[in-house]
Amino acid sequence: MKVDPAPAITEEVAAAAEANARAQSEGLAAVSPRLYNQDLAPTKREGRKWTSYSIFTLWANDVHSLGNYAFAIGLFALGLGGWQILLALGVGAVLLFLLLNLSGYMGVKTGIPFPVMSRISFGIHGAQIAAILRGGVAIVWFGVQTYLASVVFRVLLIAVFPGLAGLDADNILGLSTLGWFAFISLWIVQVVIVSYGMEMIRKYEAFAGPVILFTFAALAVWMLIEAGGSIAFTTDQSLGGAEMWVAIFGGGALWVAIYGTFVLNFCDFTRSAVSKQAVTRGNFWGIPINMMLFGAIVVVLAGAQFTINGTIITSPADIVQTIPSTFLLVLACLSLLILTIAVNLMANFVAPVYMLANLFPKYLNFRKAGIISAVIGLVILPWNLYNNPVVIVYFLGGLGAVLGPLFGVVMADYWLIRRSRVNVPDLYTENPSGAYFYRRGYNTKAITALIPSSLIAILIAFIPYLSAAAPFSWFFGAGIAALVYYFIADRDRTFEDVSGEPIAVSSVH
Hints:
Elements: H1 11-25, H2 52-62, H3 66-78, H4 82-110, H5 114-122, H6 127-160, H7 177-195, H8 198-226, H9 241-258, H10 260-265, H11 267-270, H12 276-309, H13 316-320, H14 326-359, H15 366-379, H16 382-386, H17 389-417, H18 444-462, H19 473-488
């Protein structure tokens, strides 16, 4: 009689089986291969490598992103002066420092990534909702940011090889031949980096951070010299009175909203941090201190350009293109490319990788999920989405508005309800008696708190009549969700604090 061969066992399933054996020997709940693989597993405390410098360089890169410069320079265009811009960024920086510490400490304590962290409040299966909301937005932005970086790459290529300009005139699915070459080249670079896992991302961020800080500081000094050592601290239409203060606090609130995605999944990085103190120090130097440096550079760049010809730039890339020396232009473009890749990896690549790994833990590891994320970011032709205001404003903006309520539910559950007591092994079991099984794997109370608060946040963000409150929509959504969940959740339960060390893996694997 012919016997069919046994189905192949993937590395991911084998890892779950090994973890299950360790759990059983410790008298813990059975580990399910539908919830566990090496990339979703908690990280061992011993051997973690993310130091305060590692955390600092994350912010050294992300804070100085081109998108952030465009936002901050926009405050100058709205009529805020130098000290007012610094105050707006300072307000946002203090709030972010507090929020990121709360989020980061969760990763240090548990060693788990965001999709698994979401199981605490949403249930072992309901967590897919949170992971998809965060990862889905990130996949689109990964493609968009790669496209924006490819535009800088095209400028560099034509500056070095002017003959390539002829390849930039045709159109293939929305991009020129040179545009496709630039996009695919940068796409491949990012896929290669991610294929080596979080440790390679840590090393790349550590390399890119000093490069970015030096480049923008040098650009500010050059512009100051070009302006004769004198810059304009305000435009001809500067704000005053109540209107000024609304713009200042609105700018600070929007600054927090920009990082609304990152405060959610910061644990993806801090799960490999050596200690809470490392997270605090890295956040301190990377958020309030670094953001004040960022603000000073913004004031110098925008004020110097306004002094020179009375125009307001929209991005440092506008200045880079005017550099008269080809050599310096190439160096500046390379720095912008290094920066954009660094920002893309941390903000828009890691989240969807963990999202996909969480959806298919039996089949996808970090590398496989990274490739799939990148392919999706390519096939959606992101340049067409970027040029469509409906997609950017309503689709991505609408999803972004939901991230505030999501943050509110997760934080209220972890800090206010459970007081940071988590049974980590139970996050990986499908046993109905598990702490996070709730009803068939879904915590309906968390979903109940999420839906109305999300609708309110979206309405505040998009209804013209509520435009004055729109900058604060993230806070409204997060606050309402946290309050609703706090009052409807079962606060009388006894919560166990159980370490995940028995089923943990090395943070570098």
